[in-house]
Amino acid sequence: MPLPAQLIESLQAIDSDWALLPIDGRKRPVDPLSGEPLLAWGNSGLDLEAITALAGNPHVHAVGVLLGPASGVLALDFDGRGAATCFRRIYGRSHRELPTTVGWSSGLPHRGQLAFRVPRESWDLLRGRRRWTGAAVKGKARTVFELRWVGHQSVIAGVHPETGHYRWMQGRSPDQVSVADAPEWLLEPLYKQPDEPVCGDYAPRAADVPRALDLLQHIPPLEDYEGWLTVGMALHSVDPGLLAAWVEWSRGCAGFDEAECLAKWRSFKGRGVTIGSLHHHAAAAGYQYPWPAGSAQEREAPAAGPQPLPEPARDAVIAGLLEQLLDLLLETRDTWAQEQAIRSDLWSLGVTGQAIDERIYYALAHRWELPLQNSHNGGCRNRRLSDPITSPAEDLLPGFLLWRRDHLLFGAGGSGKTMAAAAIAVCCIKGLSFLDQEIPPSRRGRVLWIGTDGGEGARAMVREYLEDLGCAEDPSVDEQLTIWAAEPADGLPSWCCSPSGLQELRLELAGGGYALVVIDSLKAVLELAGINFGIGPVGTLLRLLQALVCRHCSLLWLHHPAGGKSAGKGLQAAAGSQNINQIPSAVHQLTRKLEDRGPCNVWSVHKLRGSQPREFSYRLTEDGFVISEGLITRNCRVAVLDAIELRQAGGLPTSTAYLCTDLGGFQEGSVRNNLTWLRKRGLVRKAGMAWRMSPQGQKLLELTRQGGAEQQVWMT
Predict the structure, then answer these.
(1) Which one of 92, 269, 432, 654 has the largest count of C-beta atoms within 10 Å of its C-beta?
(2) With a threshold of 0.70, does the pTM exceed it?
């Protein structure tokens, strides 16, 4: 069953930096697109908003947390009767002496897991796992207690194959307690020994996953136990997410036991055996891996007797299929059936869905000669400080936008990001000043506004914002602002970053004259292109847009913040993949907050190449945007409405007592009197103890934010 609403609700209070995984009904990470076991899940963590977006996915039945540095979390797994005794034997103290922390359970007797934060300085010093066994059952040792760190995940919510579902332990849900810091004594069994290297000689790379799967296809089922075990350990060393591949391969072995596969996989420590063992077994079966010509491995590969006539090189076949797929994707007509046939061929060659999407963007960059390559021609990297810089950072709007660079502006609904972007667009066209900065005359130019968020209403929405700015009828704005939105009358859908959409953008920018491209919003153009903005090739796409747009002008992405505890401030507050806040040259955040004199907008410059972070308050007046440094007109009625809206949006209580606490700068009697005044005029309503904004109140509050702070309606 898909993730129910109450499960999603229970996750809202988890820590914002937890990396989450979609899980199937058998406690395995799952690819939400195909329903197949998720390969390389160790690098596929999602934030809460991305998991929430999968709530209706038929393949996702539970949610796991990625342990280790990905989340900074260690899990203690109490796995049955005898676990508490085992804990005392290890530590010489009761498990009840542990700090109170978040915990969950499958509901089975004597079973549950506790989460603890590990200090960053200890991350690289810990083993991935340590387990202890209890009395043997049917001749097999049974794990009763386990410390789980890097290379592991724990299911925290959703379907359990035996008990029905996971649940938070009593008094230990995330909205009741915080994740406690791990005591130093708790980590002692996980510390590596002095002669145990912090990093092994073999450091697996992402490229090793397809190589390991290719080799596995050429290793026949092994009848000897040691050989079977070695193959599993080698796959585990490449990526802990390759369990499904080992199980599937093991089905051909005599005495196949899936339960034993799972138990052995959990016992692998990720040291000693590497991908080299897969090469050994594949070579013993007569297969030599086709190393790239000229590589060190190819030169060192031993001659292997008579070789069969080569089939077309697998890499060449994959490259050819990708080119065919790209040709179809660049067409504007519907080619879905043909695309799926090619994708099926690529799957049969071991190229997964996400890898296909990513390689398509690389192929597109290669075709258009854009600098997106992940390899180079062997040139020397060495440079001196005195060597010239080929692309120095220059300003488009000092303090806000760089010339020919990409920028992220994110904020919650109602924070004013679209209005701010519209004002910046007008400044780029007319050369006007924006807040405390001016655009250099040489940087003035046209603006392309891509309004995907809002569908066919996007163009009307932009016009409304320009009307609020007093620029909708300006001839220069009308002439130099180009808007791309859904146009149903002409059969045009909203723009998205599919290959055909990118080609459309490339041709438009080639005409020249643009100073800025605004895309509203990042998530919308990704989702319409079929890209999951949490686990899809977001980084590759952002770099491709960098190369495509920023050879002509600047790029401004509008984006939304993450939900749950992530809905705060800072770089990590942007929703989706962390590439979204790491790749752009600048990251800005808009928030709306209550002060003792009422609400104000806060602009935070978290990152701007060559500049220091800064933060200021501003408001929109009849004269445009004005920096107020938090000093705004005192208006209790506006402040009351704003407080109700903020609490309502955050799912927080909106009773009179809470509102009076938030509005501590006003007298309690003034707050209560204004609530009565607003209620009598139909601007708010009351449901039990809670106050709710009416549509009329919401509309008037929006008018206030758009410059009508002194509207007579608030004074009568």
Answers:
(1) 654
(2) no
